[in-house]
Write a structure and sequence with these properties.
Layout (H helix, E strand, L loop, with lengths): L3 E2 L2 H23 L4 E7 L3 H17 L2 E7 L5 H13 L5 E4 L9 H7 L11 H8 L8 H12 L8 E5 L6 H9 L8 E5 L6 H5 L4 E4 L17 E4 L3 E4 L7 E4 L4 H7 L2 E2 L6 H22 L1
Parallel strand pairs: 1-11, 2-3, 2-4, 5-6, 5-7, 7-8, 8-11
Antiparallel strand pairs: 9-10
Helix pairs in contact: 1-10, 2-10, 6-7, 6-10
The structure holds NADP nicotinamide-adenine-dinucleotide phosphate.
The site of NADP nicotinamide-adenine-dinucleotide phosphate has 25 residues, from α10.
Length: 295
């Protein structure tokens, strides 16, 4: 079997169009522009590149965006004050603190300081709790993007055996909550694997839908995949590659070549989940603006 490649850019582009139409409608109705403010601390090149991508995407769909940049000398108190200022600013609908923060800062405390109604990353405990209760307000963008891709691919998720490898607050946990709920693109039977799982292959070989989110290339080898499974590779790692101009290439958690021979469909890295993450952030910002005017 040769797997169908799931084109994340194509699905993302459709979502961008939907958001652009929603933003235009919002402007007409409320004479206001949805706004996202990103807080970027330090000089991590990957974070700077992600933030640039977010800025560009916002501009394309008509969302006002600003980035507050600060070097890593900032104190916890000063960072919380920035967040509190944004909480109080009615022009700001969405606040995103780019993670990871430098080591001396307490990321959880900063996230907890964000007004939950502006928490477009869906990481505030109030939003995480609502998601667990099946009443989502803001879910993190990557899990939302994975779910949207599966829906767009017409994967029948109802009753599907889903195995997620990775249990992070950003990906594995919220994705589990999303896929467990009753409703479209969900109602699945979900198993979550992690470093404490005894035999990961025994779990993954039962998966109709296998989602890898570990950040370690080679975590999912061909022998761990059930023939015909749908594979979603969330992982993104830099691997040295002297043949590339920049000296590295991006790779996922899954052995893409081997998996493509066994699976029925698979996301590439790059060009799979990544573009969806940005699109679903835009969806969350528009949703935050709509919630702000309805209150
Ligand atoms: N494409 C995108 O837009 C996007 C967005 C977000 C993240 N990502 C990528 O997705 C990956 C995961 O991100 P994250 O933030 O969720 O990472 P994370 O916080 O480091 O979590 C990784 C998870 O994977 C588990 N894990 C690690 N190695 C494993 C192994 N060999 N077998 C089983 N489980 C293993 C860990 O288990 P324990 O809990 O037991 O330690 C942990 O739960 C990274 O490559 C990240 O760059 C991509």
């Amino acid at each position: 079997m040769t797997a169908r490649i799931i084109d994340g850019k194509q699905v993302a582009s459709a979502v961008h169009d939907e958001v652009a139409a929603g933003v235009a409608e919002f402007k007409k109705k409320h004479d206001a522009v949805p706004g996202l403010t990103v807080v970027l601390i330090g000089d991590d090149p990957a974070s700077h590149s992600y933030v640039k991508g977010k800025e560009r995407a916002c501009e394309k769909v008509g969302i006002r965006t600003e980035t507050i940049r600060h070097d890593s000398s900032i104190t916890q108190k000063a960072l919380i004050e920035i967040v509190e200022g944004l909480n109080a600013d009615p022009q700001v609908n969405g606040i995103l603190v780019q993670l990871p923060l430098p080591d001396h800062l307490d990321g959880d405390a900063v996230i907890h300081a964000i007004d939950p109604m502006k928490d477009v990353d869906g990481l505030h405990p109030e939003n995480a709790g609502l998601l667990m209760l099946g009443q989502p307000r803001f879910a993190p963008a990557t899990p939302l993007g994975v779910q949207r891709m599966l829906v767009e691919q017409n994967v029948d998720m109802k009753g599907a055996k889903v195995v997620i490898v990775g249990r992070s607050k950003l990906v594995g946990m919220p994705l589990t909550a999303l896929l467990l709920q009753k409703g479209v693109g969900a109602n699945s039977t979900v198993t979550v694997c992690h470093t404490g799982t005894k035999d990961i292959g025994a779990e993954t070989r039962r998966a109709d839908v296998l989602i890898a989110a570990t950040g370690y290339p080679g975590t999912i080898t061909t022998d761990m995949i059930k023939p015909g499974a749908v594979i979603i590779d969330v992982g993104v790692s830099r691997v040295d590659d002297a043949t590339r101009k920049r000296g590295y290439r991006l790779t996922g958690d899954v052995d893409f070549e081997g998996a493509s021979e066994v699976a029925s469909a698979i996301t590439p890295v790059p060009g799979g989940v990544g573009p969806m993450t940005i699109s679903m952030l835009l969806v969350n910002v528009l949703h935050a603006a709509e919630l702000a005017v309805s209150n």
